[in-house]
Amino acid sequence: MINHSSSDFASNPFTVTVSRGPIIESRHQVIAVISDAKGKLVRSWGDVRNAVYLRSAIKPLQAIPLVETGAADALDVTEQELSLACASHNGEVAHVDAVSEWLKRIGLGINDLECGTHWPKYEAAALELAGAGLAPSAAHNNCSGKHSGFLSTAVYMKENTQGYIHLDHPVQQRIVKVLEDFTDLDLSRAPIGTDGCSIPTIAIPLDKAALAMARFADPSKLEAGRASACHRIQTAVAKFPHMIAGTDRLCTALDGAAHGKVIAKVGAEAVYLAALPELGLGIALKALDGADRAAEVALGALLEDLGVVTEDIHKSADPYFHPILRNRNDIVVGRLEAVFD
Amino acid sequence: MINHSSSDFASNPFTVTVSRGPIIESRHQVIAVISDAKGKLVRSWGDVRNAVYLRSAIKPLQAIPLVETGAADALDVTEQELSLACASHNGEVAHVDAVSEWLKRIGLGINDLECGTHWPKYEAAALELAGAGLAPSAAHNNCSGKHSGFLSTAVYMKENTQGYIHLDHPVQQRIVKVLEDFTDLDLSRAPIGTDGCSIPTIAIPLDKAALAMARFADPSKLEAGRASACHRIQTAVAKFPHMIAGTDRLCTALDGAAHGKVIAKVGAEAVYLAALPELGLGIALKALDGADRAAEVALGALLEDLGVVTEDIHKSADPYFHPILRNRNDIVVGRLEAVFD
């Protein structure tokens, strides 16, 4: 629980501490904001007008064109695949098989993915692959589901399926338009970096990111086709949480146990975005140093503070929200906690 | 190069920035101090009186009893093994074989190691092991060399070889005594945590850690046997740098290229300690958030500022001191830099 001050708008980041034995060993600073769909900030910590690369945390919004163009219906994209389109997945067999089958069904293959290749970050998946004498393909890339969604939209729209990772390709331009609509920003002069999977990543002030997630959570004021896309994506993630991340991952543990009350997605460099459909709120946070361990604890503290952590969520997500550190002999040596300075 | 202020004793931590495209994506705060062997602080950044767990960065000092008890000579401990006693190694075949042979020679085996087991953190070593259908043993633990040194000392001193990881065992008590001598501190009431490999890790003010490293670098005022132990450990690391870490690791790249001018050792949670024998100086630093990537860049900045980075060191260590971030398609997407606020 965050012991937040009486002011609704604390100006300081909050802290996630890493203790070992009797003292704090390391500490992380987190900026965070909770917004409603009109842009009213319910709470914030730190300078949340800072532009932040949202990285993979924005994937649920990047999946909107897949649905609202009509591509998902025309190409029989399943709910499982829709969840995978929002994923930073573990590269487990279930993820890789689903990507391969999806690409095959739309007449393409793994070689059409432009995300690059890496060994699964999930150790067990990497070791299993190596143990079978195999090497990873682009389908193992944690972003391969999102890229399959991009390719599906390009196929349906009869666009070039090559170069879809570049900012001037219609696939990326549609995403820019979605982000502009959801944030009320003109992004034509926003800072743009290159993401791990080579698509553009656009820096957006954290308060506007929370606004975007609130509108995704409560799309009642949006155009009907877009509102429907938001609902379908939420439902898909809640029904197939394993697809959005995988074994031993917070997104999967939380989004599954929340049964649609929370749709949360991690991004690289310690970003977390979450939509709370029942409350019509959006959450955006970043640990300033880019440490994922701090972002997970921070998300838990915000959700607990908002009173949305059910028994089911506690059971599934507490290992991430209140991590206990164990050493190589499985001895408890420390813990992480969210605290106010 | 650090643009340090005109004051020798800046009170603020310095920053390591992580940029992506046109903006800074994440940032780390680093406390650091450079001391001579008399305890004069040459420079410092941040509150360096803070007690910090030195973790594995202190291993070169933890190896002193192995030499000064006479155990190393009596048990024919090689220079390669002495470097391994200071190591957080990659678990590559060379490391694991050396540990196994060392233990066998002193009449013990891998099962006598009390450090626990983990898959090598070096991805290539883990994948190679899995590819051969094997699993790791305690010899793969990155601390197995240090533990072999502990066991050697216990064997030579005719002490119990079980329980050597506990604070009250003579192996650990000798290390406490070394640390008290090198820091001028009474450590009987110091905060003590449990390290990853289950031995005690003692929190020591960062300025005293730098003093300890300066005395290790310039042991001329120490008792002859201890001074000789410091020199032997320095020589062993400089001659067998692969043993102290391994492939693609800063400690190996730097300590090898420095030819004895720098003995640097990383510790978990972003600690770096370094001894500069020619200058008689010690360096201690910690990124407050525990990010190793920041500690490496910070160490480079301090060494460059001190003018000790030779052409050889530049060639070997620049990938760690001035890292370029590349994505999954090998595209340059960002960089890390040490800067003063």
UniProtKB/TrEMBL annotation, chains A, B:
<protein>
    <submittedName>
        <fullName>Asparaginase</fullName>
    </submittedName>
</protein>
<dbReference type="Pfam" id="PF06089">
    <property type="entry name" value="Asparaginase_II"/>
</dbReference>
<dbReference type="InterPro" id="IPR010349">
    <property type="entry name" value="Asparaginase_II"/>
</dbReference>
